[in-house]
Amino acid sequence: MTRARQFGVNEFDQLAEGYDESRGGEQRGDEYAADLDAQLPPGEDPVLEIGVGTGVVALGLRRRGRTVLGLDISAPMLLRARPRLGPLLVRCDAMAMSIATASVAHAVSVWVIHSVKDPVRLFREVARVIRPGGRYVVCATQRPAHEDQVGVIIAEMSARVDARRGASRPREVSAEEVLAWAGEAGFTGRVYELQRQWRSSPDEELAAIVNRRWPAMRELDEAAIEEVTRPAIEALQSLPATVQLRRATAEMVVLQRP
C-alpha cells in the first residue's frame, strides 16, 4: 500500500494553497510562536509541533532558537512547510505517530484538537512520545470580543455549520474539555488567557466563505452551505468595507506529563 493511499485525501489537502493568506501567514504564526515559547522551559529540545501545517508557527519557534520537528497528515501542507523547515518533517496520523517513545522534550499544537476524532487517543500518543516532565502546550479556543462585529458574525456562522452537519461536538472546543481529555492520558495542566488582535476586512472573510476555507463547511452540500452562510454574508456585506482591528480572547492550555 502506498503512503498516499494509506492516508487518503485529508480535509486540509484542499486548503493548503491559500491557507497562509487566510490565516495571517508568518506574522500571525510568529505571534503564536512567541506565546508557545514563553511556556516552554529554555534549552530543552526537540519540540514536536503536532499539526505543523504550512510551518509558520514552527518557523517562529526556530527563530527563537528551538529545534522543531513538524508532524502533519496532509502532504500538500507539508509541501509548503518544507521550504521553511527543511527535512525535519514527518507525515503521519497524530493518533498513531511515527515518533519514538520519549524522544521529544515537549510538544505544541495550534488549532488542531478540534479536528481530531478521538482526543483522548491523541493525548495518550503525546504522553508516549514526550519525555517524563515534558510539556504539551495547546491553543484550542478563541472567543471574539463583543465589539468585534466580524468575529461575532463568523462565530455565529460556525455554530450553524456545526448544527447543520450534525456534529457530535462543535469544532470550537473548550479549555475545560482539553483538560478533561488530557487528564485521561495522565496530564495535569493550567489554562492561560491571551488577548489577541489583528486586522482584517469583511471582504477577506467573505472570500473565505466563498472559497470554503473552513474544513467543516466542506462536509455540507451546496444547499446546506447556502443556508448556513447566507446570514453571515448579508451581515458582512452590511459592514464598512475597510480593514478593521479585530480582537479576541484566546485560551492556551499548558499540560505537564508526570
* H and E string: HHHEHEHEEHEHHEHHE
The total count of strands amounts to: 7
CATH architecture assignment name of the domain at 3-145 and 169-197 and 249-256: 3-Layer(aba) Sandwich
The 3D shape can be described as globular
Poorly predicted runs = 1-9
Estimated radius of gyration: 18 Å
Instruction: Tell me the fraction of residues in β-strands, as a range.
Output: 15-25%
Helicity range: 40-55%
Major beta sheet, specifics? 7 strands, mixed
Global structural class: alpha/beta
Report on the architecture of this protein.
The chain is of the alpha/beta class. Helix content is 41%, strand content 21%. It has a domain at 3-145 and 169-197 and 249-256: 3-Layer(aba) Sandwich (Rossmann fold). Strands 3-2-1-4-5-7-6 form a seven-stranded mixed β-sheet. It starts with a helix and ends with a strand. Mean pLDDT is 87; it is low at 1-9.
Question: What is shown here, in short?
Answer:
The protein has 258 residues and is an alpha/beta fold. The chain has helices at residues 3-7, 19-23, 25-38, 56-63, 75-85, 119-129, 149-164, 175-184, 202-210, 222-237; strands at 47-50, 68-72, 89-91, 106-110, 135-144, 188-200, 244-256. α3 (25-38) crosses α4 and α6 crosses α8 (175-184).
Q: Which properties best describe this structure?
A:
258 residues; alpha/beta; Rossmann fold; 10 helices; 21% strand; globular; disordered N terminus
